[in-house]
């Protein structure tokens, strides 16, 4: 109702009222005002309806034109106590202007800003899902309007729109407003402040008018509409309906339904969720249909409920259609029509699409799809027949899924489930009824009685077959507020949910449960309950009242045969390009599918087995193949493999024949490939084979090229080829080449290894040439180097050409053991190096001329290669003679087989080491030897008794002896001088 | 009403010098919505009160008539009069009714007889 005073109401109905109109608008930034002097007539009007959006209209007959698109405001006034009281009729946009030449005035047609919504809808740019309230807000924002109810809780305000529904449809924003009016059970309009407002019809009248407001003509009241007691949501050509009724009202008043058809928001299978709030809002709505002319009321607004009192009758009416004609006078035409009557066949409608057994048809105009579903769900089976249709495609599918769970619920805290399989619980729901499910929290003033016991929060699973007990502890107290508000515990195995939904809190001060301002979900770590198979009693321990729902795995034919569930389905999909027929069976994770695919190019059948009964004719390119029972008649059979016990033919032609056995008179072929050819007599011009295995292979000529012969035992030309050995043996000797690197030639008359060019023998780890093998067998280790060893006879290295010399050079390093003094050629007496002098160098003379062994003096005694000179003094000479004097010489024999003649003479090193002077002249070197009998070894490789020995450098002995001679010479000179002195004294 | 000789001025001409009588009418104009309502009660919208001043001119000379007739013949006039309701001089726009100037004694001395004319407000009285 428009804001007005009681005096206004009195004056407007009084005889001799005076009225006024004011239109204001801005033109080029300057506010313009049109008064009654320039206005010939103004008619605000609207045509509304419940569950609709309303656009208000203003017709103006003005002497002054107002540009199209101009926003103007209209106020209607009544003279009250000497001044005009104005009602604000809101703002309008000039939509059209027509000049009336006869009256030289302008007829302006204006609409309120709902005009902005008369455009094809576009994407609102919102994120889905979005609540109905936020969607309305976004829609208003898109149109540049303010949503008055943006913070209000109106009907279905918090229901979620899951996806974009209108883009692509030929819906205007106004159409969307219409559907939102249905969703919110309201009438959507703009108020005088240009705000989009959801307007609801009140149950009480805002005003009562009497006959004084009514003209004496065209006054029609009578039929009463309502009370509304059934809301029907209809789709698919009104063939698919869900409804919600006020059963008591239907009983008492008869059915009065309001049908909402093809609402895009309430077009899905959650549409029944919208019904309760819509029905709650509209339930009981009733009003009188009317059509009357008033002398002018003006202040009643859209959706106002008002009473009209005529005589003794009072009519409760709703202001839905109004036309206020303001000229010199005032006439108001009001009417409210009967809504379009609908009658739903409720025997074919249901209260929800979510029923276990569903039958529904969804027409999705946005995506241009039609989906129909017929489903039937039993405790263990779910059967679905589904057809979906688009412009390009038609799909149908029939499926049968077996559920393998068993479930039960109770409000008395206990349920029994039989034949449960070994598993964990699939789902559990618990909430309190009338009393909290919680621990008992004693107050400070509680004195427990004998029969007071502590409550628990335990769900107990008792296997009544095995008497096993499994307890599940609720993670939190479940508090109760009323039948609609309580805490709830939820366990869901599939999503691993283990949570408590808290809706109720506890107020310590009042000691009462209170509603929480906002629902709170607390998630806990998932707790497993490993149940064994058997029959179960599930109970809320200690509670006889309390809701419990439990779903467990059932033990039945499916679970005993299969691991999980069984799904059978068949589908037909059809497009303009192809038709697909598919039948599948899924047992656990194993799926078997048979399908037929038809396109314009091919028909494809896929199945584990294809059974065709009858004669099959395959015709192509004027040729045909006939399969008649077990007989195939065709032109050519092309196959990688034909398996047959017998192939009977007069002429058999094949590129390749793979057969275990071919029996034939004559086998003529360009090429015969076989892993094995077994024949008594094989005759061939050429044999190309990877391998020829034969007892005797006789051939005039065998040519081998790039061939590796790998015989295990063969003989070619007298040479026996054994595995890893080539052997030839006859009366002249035998020769062997072994794979281990040994080559033996044992001719009876001696062999020759002859080469017609330089002979090179390469042995990186040593080369030994010997005429026996005392130490150089293949198992013996030889030192790297070249060893020429004779065991019997002489070893001669010579040169028969006089011009050429025999050179023996040693480049060995100073550190080698063989020559601690530097480079040398070792002449050893035996196989050891006990004495350096043990060897001898024999220089053979030539006739009368002596031969000599010369050493290279070098420059080793030159001053320029020496330093730190210290001339021997007499003390040094005295020491030499002192040592000489102390030194005893012996005859002795060597214990071991060192010299051919073991008898030798000389000093003993052990004695010399006892003398102080020795260290000035001698250096002894210690060696470790191994003694075995008469054998002594210094190589360290022989076994025997360890023996430490010492030797000396004979060159040092020479120098010592030179020193002694010098000392003696000095002594002689002294003596000679003494002699001379004595002789002169004489 | 006339409170003095300057109580009626038309287009800035004081008619007090030319008239012998002035009648002031305050006519109510009712809308066509007027009638009886369903209760049998008269109902209607008063469009407004439109003042109407009827003046009786004395016999005017030719010169006086030549001064006044352009005003009387014009479509609108601006009339200032004393409104006893408002107790002040009030200005209104008027249109005039038809008028006739009668001449008697055509032969000999010609003299204009006095005549009557109405000044009617184009707007309702505020």
Structure summary:
Chain A is mostly beta strands. Helix content of chain A is 10%, strand content 36%.
Write the layout of secondary structure elements.
The complex is a heterodimer of chains A (986) and B (126).
Chain A: H1 6-12, E1 19-27, E2 30-34, E3 39-47, E4 57-62, E5 71-80, E6 83-100, E7 105-111, E8 130-131, H2 132-143, E9 146-147, E10 160-161, H3 173-183, E11 187-190, E12 195-199, E13 207-210, E14 220-225, E15 230-235, E16 240-245, H4 247-253, E17 257-261, H5 275-282, E18 287-294, E19 305-310, E20 313-318, E21 321-326, E22 330-336, E23 359-364, E24 369-377, E25 381-389, E26 393-402, E27 405-410, E28 414-420, E29 427-431, E30 458-463, E31 468-473, E32 480-482, E33 485-486, E34 488-492, E35 497-507, E36 512-523, E37 534-540, E38 547-553, H6 557-561, E39 566-575, E40 578-587, E41 590-599, E42 603-606, E43 616-620, E44 623-628, E45 631-633, E46 713-716, E47 719-722, E48 725-730, E49 733-738, E50 743-747, E51 767-770, E52 786-789, H7 874-886, E53 890-893, E54 903-906, H8 909-912, E55 924-932, E56 935-937, E57 945-952, H9 954-985
Parallel strand pairs in A: 9-12, 13-19, 15-17, 51-52
Antiparallel strand pairs in A: 1-2, 1-5, 3-4, 3-21, 4-7, 5-6, 6-7, 8-10, 11-12, 14-18, 15-16, 18-22, 19-20, 21-22, 23-24, 24-25, 25-26, 26-39, 27-38, 28-37, 29-34, 29-38, 30-31, 30-37, 32-33, 34-35, 35-36, 39-40, 40-41, 41-42, 43-44, 44-45, 46-47, 47-48, 48-49, 49-50, 53-54, 55-56, 55-57
Chain B: E1 8-10, E2 13-14, E3 19-30, E4 35-36, E5 42-43, E6 46-57, H1 62-73, E7 77-83, E8 88-96, E9 103-104, E10 111-112, E11 116-121
Antiparallel strand pairs in B: 1-2, 1-7, 3-6, 4-5, 6-11, 7-8, 8-11, 9-10
Descriptive terms for the model:
heterodimer; A: 986 residues; mainly beta; 11-stranded antiparallel β-sheet; 8-stranded antiparallel β-sheet; 10% helix; B: 126 residues; 7-stranded antiparallel β-sheet; two-stranded antiparallel ribbon; 1 helix; 11 strands; elongated
